[in-house]
Write a structure and sequence with these properties.
four-stranded antiparallel beta sheet, rod-shaped, alpha+beta, about 120 residues, 4 strands
C-alpha cells in the first residue's frame, strides 16, 4: 500500500527545526540592531568631541590645565591640555613655539567614552 504525504512525526521535526532556526535568526537580528544603535552613539560622541576640540584655543584656553563641561544632550566633556617637555620638541625648531597635547573625552550614558588626542602649536609669549 502506497502512502502520500508526511507522517505526524516528520511534521513535528520540521516545525522544531524551523522554530530553532527562526529563534537564532531573530536573536542575530536583535543583536545587529543593538550594535547599530551603539555605533550611532559612538559616531555622535565623536562628532561632539571634534566640536569641543575645535573650541580649544578660542572658547577653551590653549594653556596647560583641565576643563569640563556638559553638552545639550546630557553628555559630559573633559579637556586636558598639557605643554610638551622641551626634550620632546622637534630638533632644529627655530620659531618660539610651544607644543600642547590636547585630549578631549566625551562621556555619556553608562560611562561610555570617546577620547580624541591632537597636537596644537602656540607662539611662546
Amino acid at each position: 500500500m502506497k502512502h502520500n504525504g508526511f507522517t505526524l512525526l516528520e511534521v513535528i521535526v520540521a516545525f522544531t527545526i524551523m522554530a530553532v532556526m527562526m529563534a537564532s535568526l531573530l536573536q542575530a537580528f536583535g543583536t545587529g540592531l543593538r550594535n547599530l544603535d551603539r555605533a550611532q552613539d559612538y559616531a555622535v560622541a565623536t562628532m561632539q568631541a571634534r566640536s569641543v576640540l575645535e573650541q580649544v584655543g578660542s572658547v577653551i584656553p590653549l594653556q596647560a590645565g583641565e576643563y569640563d563641561g556638559e553638552l545639550d544632550n546630557g553628555s559630559k566633556w573633559h579637556v586636558v591640555v598639557e605643554a610638551r617637555a622641551a626634550d620632546e620638541r622637534r630638533p632644529g625648531q627655530t620659531v618660539e613655539l610651544i607644543d600642547y597635547v590636547v585630549d578631549v573625552a566625551v562621556t555619556w550614558q553608562d560611562e561610555r567614552r570617546v577620547t580624541l588626542r591632537t597636537l596644537r602649536l602656540a607662539l611662546r609669549q
